[in-house]
TrEMBL record:
Keywords: Cell outer membrane, Membrane. This is OmpA family protein. PROSITE patterns: OMPA_2 (PS51123). CDD domains: OmpA_C-like (cd07185). It is found in: Cell outer membrane. Residues 123-244 form the OmpA-like domain. Coiled coil: none annotated. The keyword Membrane applies. PANTHER family: LIPOPROTEIN YIAD-RELATED, STATOR ELEMENT OF FLAGELLAR MOTOR COMPLEX. Pfam families: OmpA. SUPFAM superfamilies: OmpA-like. Its main location: membrane. It comes from Sediminitomix flava.
Length: 244
């Protein structure tokens, strides 16, 4: 009798498993959800939509990439997988890079639509623009960090417009003497110019200018007590696009 009960129990478990198997399979398939991202690029100055922006979408989980271009209405649409993080950024000739945005597809309701808006800024002549992530060691001309994207951007500008020139401007904070900071900033600007030439930019189209502490962005002038963070705002490198 005991063997019969065991046999009956085993058959019952098998029956329940077979009944529930499609449900497990269905739940598994539901986990492979897809999500639609709709984005639009807006001109920072005019508020108009920007056509022809190259959009790069990076899956940080497996490093796969999706590349596309915005249509005439400045928009794009893409389907993304779930359980991943994506980094999205746009670029266009004669424009600064848009701010990067992240999209997480964890714990989202199936068939969720994600709407994004990006601002992108056109580069104007005789206007200083920050070279982000170009950093120097303290009190030294040695470059500690650069941003390859902006090196490529400057090279593309001069490749497409060989009659244009680029000013590289370096600024220090107010710590140290005025003369010392002016000399240090000139050395740093020269080092950036050397780097750009090494990367293929024409030397005759690049002017390196050391500004020192003449153009501070805040109140941290000589003899004014400021935090290191406040001083750091003034330490920066910029580029200016000029014409002959």
């Amino acid at each position: 009798m005991s063997c019969f009960r065991n046999l009956l129990g085993n058959h019952l478990l098998l029956f329940i498993f077979l009944i529930l198997l499609p449900s497990f399979a269905l739940n598994a398939s539901n986990r492979a959800n897809k999500f639609i991202v709709k984005g639009v690029f807006i001109d920072k100055d005019t508020g108009k939509r920007v056509q022809g922006v190259s959009v790069l979408i990076l899956n940080t989980k497996d490093q796969s990439k999706i590349s596309l271009v915005t249509g005439k209405n400045g928009d794009f649409k893409v389907t993304l997988n779930d359980l991943a993080e994506y980094k999205i950024q746009g670029s266009k000739p004669m424009h600064l890079f848009s701010l990067e945005k992240s999209v997480l597809t964890y714990d989202l309701t199936p068939n969720t639509n994600i709407d994004l808006e990006f601002k992108i800024e056109r580069i104007h002549f005789n206007t200083p623009y920050l070279l982000p992530n170009f950093k120097f060691h303290l009190n030294d001309k040695e470059i500690a960090n650069t941003d390859a994207r902006y090196i490529t951007l400057l090279k593309e500008i001069l490749d497409d417009h060989p009659d244009m020139s680029i000013e590289i401007r370096n600024h220090t904070d107010s710590r140290g003497s005025d003369d010392y900071n002016l000399t240090l900033s000139q050395k740093r600007a020269d080092e950036i110019k050397k780097l750009l030439i090494k990367k293929g930019l024409p030397a005759q189209n690049i002017l390196a200018l050391g500004i020192g502490e003449k153009e501070l962005l805040n109140e941290c002038e000589n003899n004014i007590k400021c935090s290191s963070t406040a001083h750091l705002i003034n330490r920066r490198s910029e580029f200016v696009l000029t014409t002959p």
